[in-house]
Amino acid sequence: MTVMRRLRHRKVLIFALLAILCISSMCVADDDSMDDDFLAEILAEEARHEEEAALMEAEAREYEAMKARQYSGNAGNTNNMGGGKPKMGGAGSGMPKGAGSGSFSKLEEELKKKEAEKASLQAAKEEEEQEQEAERIRLKREAAFEADLKKMNEEQKKKAQQQKKKDAKIVNRILKASKSGKHYAVLGIRNFEVQIGPYYVFNFSIGPLVLFRVKTKAIKRVYRNLARTVHPDKNKDGRAEEAFHALEQSAAILTDEKQRQDYDKKIISARRRRNKYAVDSVMRVSHTCWSQTASTLKMTKKVLGPFSTPILVVGALIMP
Fold first, then answer.
1. Fewer CB within 10 Å: N-end or C-end of the chain?
2. pLDDT tens digits, residue range 78-120?
3. Bridge-based pairing state of the strands 199-201 and 194-196
4. By the 8 A CB rule, do 100 and 70 touch?
């Protein structure tokens, strides 16, 4: 009887081991299929990159060959000019003048156009990937915040939600300013910097004079205080990490002297263009109004004849 029980136990153990082996083999097969799909995607991406690189290399070789042909054609023309008139049946007599340079410039323009299109597509792709990554992080942070809310009581929930609204205002302001390229506004600094000059008198230059310039120390201090508020560990908004990166980028530009000078030049030139456009608009409107008024007065004088002056004077006196 005991022997029969032992045999039954052994059979049960054998069946259990076989079941475990079958399940593990199925899991391994699934993992292998997933790895194969991932590997296939990587290989397809690498093949696409290699194809693009080969295409660019072929275009570059064609470009270099065209340059070499143009150089050899110019050298042949120089030799013909030094040695006398070229023969009518010569090798270069069939090509019209300027044909090589025209095709060369056309090829160069096409290459530049393709490179610009490729760069724009790459930039658009990178921007889209960054937006997708930012959205993924936002959803993850929002889910974590909702999970934390479930562990709180009513009073704690209310305080946490109020704090999240305050954090969201700061984050939205930073992201809006960063999207517009306003680095001073990202840090919440009002830039009243004014540049006067330079003025040139004979062989001497005066200026440029810069007034109301924000010091680098003040920018660093504002950045440190704001970074504590926007840091993802402290700020509960879903886009806090994106706002923190934008804050770091703006601070890096404004604390670097050369990058800040370039950025300030762009701001000054944009401000001058805006002011010029405003002045031109005012002058154009003023000129239009004056022309309309002059034409109206002229027509009135023509219609009323000798009574135009007394009527206009009386009308001007009657008007309040």
1. C
2. 454 444 444 444 444 444 445 455 666 777 788 888 888 888 8
3. unpaired
4. yes
The pTM assigned to this predicted structure is 0.55
- pLDDT over 80 at 309, yes or no: no
Q: How is residue 19 written in tokens?
A: 């079941």
Alpha-carbon distance of 297 to 313, in angstroms, equals: 12
Q: Which residues pair with 200 in a beta bridge?
A: 205
- On whether the CB atoms of residues 149 and 222 are closer than 8 A, the answer is no
Q: Name the residue with tokens 């039954």.
A: 8
- How far is C-alpha 100 from the chain's CA centre? 39
- 69: phi then psi, degrees, rounded to nearest 5: -65, -40
Q: How far apart are CA 241 and CA 167, in angstroms?
A: 12
By C-alpha distance, which of 185, 187, 145 is closest to 163? 145
Both tokens of residue 219? 């920018």
Q: Which amino acid is at 211?
A: L
Q: Given the structure tokens 């029969």, which residue do they identify?
A: 4
Q: Which residues of 110-146 are buried (b: 16+ CB within 10 A; e: fewer)?
A: eeeeeeeeeeeeeeeeeeeeeeeebeebbeebeeeee
- Look at the chain and count its residues: 320
Q: Is the Cα dihedral 82, 88, 91, 97 positive or negative?
A: positive
Q: Does the pLDDT at position 313 exceed 60?
A: yes
Conformation bin of residue 212: beta by default, left when phi > 0, alpha when psi is -120 to 50: left
DSSP alpha helices (H): ranges in the chain? 2-83, 99-150, 154-179, 183-186, 216-230, 240-255, 257-304, 308-318
Angle formed by the axes of helices 154-179 and 99-150, nearest 10°:
170
User: What burial class does residue 312 get, using C-beta atoms within 10 Å of its C-beta: 0-12 exposed, 13-18 middle, 19+ buried?
Assistant: middle
Q: What is the pLDDT of residue 97?
A: 47
CA-to-CA separations, 88 to 85, 91, 94, 108, in angstroms, rounded? 9, 9, 9, 31
